Amino acid sequence: MISPASTLTEDDVTAPGAATGSSAPASGSGAASTGRPGYTSLDVRLDGVGRSFGEHTVLRDVSLTVAPGEVLAILGSSGCGKSTLLRAVGGLDTGSTGQILIDGSPVQRYDERTAVGFQEPRLLPWRSIYKNVSLGLPRSLSKAEGRERVDELLELVGLRDRASLRPREISGGMAQRASLARALARRPGVLLLDEPFGALDALTRLKMQDLLLDLHAQTGTTVLLVTHDVDEALQLADRVLLLGRNPQDPAAAEGATIARLLEVPGTRPRDRASAELAALRGELFSGLGVDSHTH
Amino acid sequence: MISPASTLTEDDVTAPGAATGSSAPASGSGAASTGRPGYTSLDVRLDGVGRSFGEHTVLRDVSLTVAPGEVLAILGSSGCGKSTLLRAVGGLDTGSTGQILIDGSPVQRYDERTAVGFQEPRLLPWRSIYKNVSLGLPRSLSKAEGRERVDELLELVGLRDRASLRPREISGGMAQRASLARALARRPGVLLLDEPFGALDALTRLKMQDLLLDLHAQTGTTVLLVTHDVDEALQLADRVLLLGRNPQDPAAAEGATIARLLEVPGTRPRDRASAELAALRGELFSGLGVDSHTH
Amino acid sequence: GSDGGEDEQLETLNIDFATYNPLSLIILENGWLEEELEELDVDVKWVQSQGSNVANENLRAENIHVGSTAGSAALLNRAVGADTHTIMIENQPEWSALVINEDSDIESVEDLEGASIAATPATDPYFFMARSLQEAGLSVDDVEIQALQHADGRQALANGDVDAWAGLDPIMAGAEADGAELLYRNVDFNTYSVVNATGDFVENHPDIAQIVVNVYEQAREWATENPEGTAEILAEYAGIEPEIAEAVITERTNFDIDPVPGDDVYAAMEAAGPFFVENGDVDSQDDVDEALESLFHPEFAENREATDAEGTEDAADEADIEETEE
Amino acid sequence: MTDTLYVTGASVPDATPKPPRRRNRLTRKVPGGGLLIGAVVPVLLLGLWWLATDVTGTFSQVQLPAPQAVFSAGLGLFESGELFEHMAISLQRVLLGFAIGAVLGLALGALLGLSSIADGLLHPTVGAFRAVPSLAWVPLLLLWVGIDEDSKVILIAIGAFFPVFTAIHSALRHVDAQLVEAGRAFGFHGVRLLGTVQLPAVVPSVFSGLRLALAQAWLFLVAAELLASSEGLGFLLTESQNNGRTDRLLLAIVLLALLGKLTDTLLGLLERKALKTWA
Amino acid sequence: MTDTLYVTGASVPDATPKPPRRRNRLTRKVPGGGLLIGAVVPVLLLGLWWLATDVTGTFSQVQLPAPQAVFSAGLGLFESGELFEHMAISLQRVLLGFAIGAVLGLALGALLGLSSIADGLLHPTVGAFRAVPSLAWVPLLLLWVGIDEDSKVILIAIGAFFPVFTAIHSALRHVDAQLVEAGRAFGFHGVRLLGTVQLPAVVPSVFSGLRLALAQAWLFLVAAELLASSEGLGFLLTESQNNGRTDRLLLAIVLLALLGKLTDTLLGLLERKALKTWA
Ligand SMILES: Nc1ncnc2c1ncn2[C@@H]1O[C@H](COP(=O)(O)OP(=O)(O)OP(=O)(O)O)[C@@H](O)[C@H]1O
Ligand SMILES: Nc1ncnc2c1ncn2[C@@H]1O[C@H](COP(=O)(O)OP(=O)(O)OP(=O)(O)O)[C@@H](O)[C@H]1O
Ligand SMILES: [Mg+2]
Ligand SMILES: [Mg+2]
């Protein structure tokens, strides 16, 4: 159990505790928020969502409902459209077809109910890390509250002693953590994270995963998380969405769609050795085209 | 066994074969090049290399010799100085102390004997993917040879059908593959790769690892590979360098140095289940501060 | 620009034309100069002068051999060190006057005390104004002078930004046509329209200088006989209405004078001299006196003999005017 | 059909996805709509001008002639063929001077932007020359070059030089350092690096500099045509001003503005093409 | 000591690492070295000038006076107190006009750079006005504003407006789209987005525009002081040119260049500070 106040520096090499124990709501229904009062959990409904760039169809027929407070991991091969889907949910993309509803109302352009952690850090080069993270704060927060929240987050992502540096003065993994902190600072109804842990070493990655689960337990926010790590998906998510072309039907239309949608059983932290998880793992790896025995 | 001509697209979901079977030279000596004639393998010698940014010491006392044709994986926590070390070897950093020799002569500014795959893709936004990859070609190559090599590499990294797109029109993982292809196009004496597979899904990652090993078998180039994936390090490398502060001596000077330098036994492809590897894996995870049983 | 060679044969005569020098327009229009210089194998290149200051500048830089200015400007140029000489008088114009608006309550020069006057420094109208004020017992310090280009001065007057304007033709004629009134005119306070040449030219090419003066003489005779034709040419070159050109030529231009620079023009220039020093344009009166003593080269005008060039219809189109490459 | 294991609320409609919406507000609604909208303000101004002169008579003919007067002045000059000559010679001077100035500006700006030695040596001097006003060059050029076509083109080139120089010089100092490093790491340096990484990266800035330079070239034209000319729009302007022909003066201004706008538009087209290629 | 398992050729010297080398060639060797090097070319030019006039006598005194003559002309004006007045009033006009023009240029450039509606509506008009030469504004301002101080400052402001406008307008269209998107995604729009993402991103371009604008302000000063002035360096320039006082003319040019360079240097300091904060 990692407490929100525990710190992490890049030289910290002590072993972490187990992951946070909060359990997410069961999926498949408009489950009530598990967050503390004052926080909102919103459901996300995708209805026949598709996206083409010119001639080239990337996504088609993506329909699913994400329950409020659910953590949905999105897997798929590189370039299959994961980021595209996430951007559509965040209202960053105007070219998609179909319908996306958040909390029952259509998604707005740059929807304020969402916060995005981009695949690239996208930090403003002329602002310190501290000020970059502050960008994520909701407008409603008072200055003092905002400062407190940013300080806390910087501490949690292990960047407190780098707060005054510019983005070009920190490492790739540090930038990714800063970008994560910025998205977390928002405490939105729907949190959209695009490979937030890709550039982190094993220890830092575990700590960041714990941090995410901690925050999720606190606020009950709905999370859509793009990742390449099957184990990470199984550890963090209530359900795992595998995007891809239908392997049974090679003649199907171009463009990725829902290839698998798996419910992950058990509550977090999950036992990596469980047989159920092993089966899901195999299922996902084979869905990704990899022979899971080599792993 | 993946042949150089096999293609990969983002929708490709068939299982890969086993990794390439070429074996790397034993480490610890100035081993002769295993590359084909016409290619050069160079040794890299670091002697008391250190680096500070202002007050803040990042690296200190890094001394080691990488044999010609060796694959050295570099592990370490986020922000510990892996990229800094790689940049110093490539001659991209002028601020480091100590001595770095490639093939016996000091490293030059932007040393032509090296090629770098940066942690960020760093593609020129106004050039097509094809032209970006072409940037990596050695100056000596004829136009036709160059075209052939780029075509082949684009095919191998699965971007042939995206060759004419601009960097902003491809996904994060695709950009990373393009950046990898650019570095590979150079066929340098020393190949420096900074987390080249970080943004790739499991299948693509395996294919790219195979591609790297294939090329290594062909050219016998020396490879320094920064990675966060312990298993990847153990699969690809002859030796694994773990950067970090000395855990036995918390009072030691600030700055990371060689915390472990492990020789990986056996020839590639290695059996993931081997007990020897499991021991190394445990050693590395604990060096990174993670309890390996959770993995 | 310069062709300092002493005994060198002059290949091209660079000479100016200007709307304030109607004779130059007549010569250009008829092609007389080209015709007269043909047998000497000298080409003619025409350069337009927008004002005395421009002609002076080109004379100083030796971009032109012959240039036309007001008499006061010719003196000023020499007083500041330029090696130029006045070789003839072109005409005695009355191109300057003090101008006021129709509804102005200023009735005499004396009333100008404390008024604001638009004038272009170092031009004939400026000296005209200064002498008029002096005559009325005032000095330039008793009025507020607004330094403005001629056309802008007219505009400022029309706007009521200034009480009076030291005007210059043909803008002044245009203003008159629009209702402005001439408060004070005095032909003697105008310092003549003169033709100058560089010292180098006068010294090394007196034969050509003589031909120039002779052609001018032919033009003078023609202009005296053909005021309408002269006005027509002026209207065309100046881009002004024919009526205004006619007024300028018939009422305020006098070709019937002795072209030899002599006492009259000396007196007019001498009167303008002190104002150069007063304004600080020239450092001392000695410089002015010295310049005046060495300014005139009257021998060409004294020996003038009108040429009888026939001219051609489209001479102006054929002429080598500065930039038309033919 | 999708092969989901635990499908939750996933309905998969058959309909093929609609083609992506295109979002080009405003300009795409009407063909030539962009042009039309751009004409709104000029037409309004023209109307105001007409009201202030012909209708209400706030200004007299010599203060501000009515638009029709300007038009008929233009017609008069057009019929005599002079108008075309004025425009042609001015256009020629501007284009020539602009081309020379822009090329020199690019070259020197690139040199000083890249070499800190050249920069330390020459930048103060260039900065001082930049501060010499266009009108001040007139007597100097008169003296050094004479009054022929050269001096006019040189003056215009001087005017065009500085915006291009400043734009590329300052832009080169702010090219993304990561990209430059990548270029160097792949063995590019000197002119090759410039052509591969730095110049393409500053294309937007350079074009903004080029457009300013073209505007400046037109501004300097008027000063240039004070240098003993008898043709050209600048000459027409100065002469009309001297002669009090306000109608022709306005005609010259309008023509200068039109020609300036026209050449700017052409440069803008080039810019759009270049940006498609480079940005 | 390190805890390696299979140490290969790792020697760990005791010496503490040397402080990182600093690489500031050229300017850091001598204190004030940057200034000295920047003075080389101007001093050379001065020497050439002196050779061409005082020594070889290629030019006559009235064509091109020797440097000493210019200096003594300056001394004469300085002693009478006129010189200071000329410089003070010109400086005041330029700074005022520059400030007004720059602020308007920033505002309008930002508006048109961000709003495609405003751009479609106004850009063609702005482009046309940009092409009106400085000298052409003189009669128009005379008509509309009169001959007081206002009209001079307005003319200078017009000159300063366009470079700033063009620079920010074009730079805003090329701000890194990813950063803008990130800003929008975090709820920034309109003025807040401008201040947070777009303006900081275009700071280098804006400063290049500001420096051009300042230079242009000095250029327009000469035209402005054709507007009924009796003081100022532009007036001195025009008057000296008319009177053939080449020494004073050169003095005016040199002073304009010096003052221009001085103000540019001050702006450059500001730029460096801004770039430290923003880039
Ligand atoms: N230009 C710079 N100025 C100041 N500090 C810097 C600079 N570049 C790097 N650093 C510091 O050096 C340290 C090491 O950075 P480096 O990029 O080498 O880390 P890394 O091991 O590659 O981390 P990651 O795995 O996150 O990429 C970091 O703490 C960073 O803050
Ligand atoms: N602006 C664009 N223009 C054209 N094609 C685009 C554009 N943006 C994305 N694409 C295409 O859409 C596809 C999906 O891209 P996306 O970024 O969603 O992939 P991804 O699943 O996130 O991949 P990765 O794991 O590599 O990040 C890619 O094939 C890409 O080429
Ligand atoms: Mg992606
Ligand atoms: Mg790194």
Automatic annotation (TrEMBL), chains A, B:
A Pfam family it matches: ABC_tran
Domain (ABC transporter): residue spans on this chain: 44-270
SMART domains with a match to the protein in the record: AAA
One GO molecular-function entry: ATP binding
Region of interest (Disordered), ranges: 1-37
Keyword Cytoplasm: no
EC number(s) reported in the record: 3.6.3.-
Comp. bias (Low complexity): 14-35
Keyword field: ATP-binding, Hydrolase, Nucleotide-binding, Transport
Protein name: Sulfonate transport system ATP-binding protein
UniProtKB/TrEMBL annotation, chains D, E:
PROSITE patterns assigned: ABC_TM1
Membrane-spanning intervals of the chain: 30-52, 94-115, 127-147, 153-172, 193-212, 218-237, 249-270
Main location: membrane
Membrane topology category: Multi-pass membrane protein
Matching InterPro entries: MetI-like (IPR000515), MetI-like_sf (IPR035906)
Subcellular localization(s) per the UniProt record: Cell membrane
Pfam families: BPD_transp_1 (PF00528)
Region feature (Disordered): 1-25
Protein family according to the UniProt entry: Belongs to the binding-protein-dependent transport system permease family.
Full protein name: Sulfonate transport system permease protein
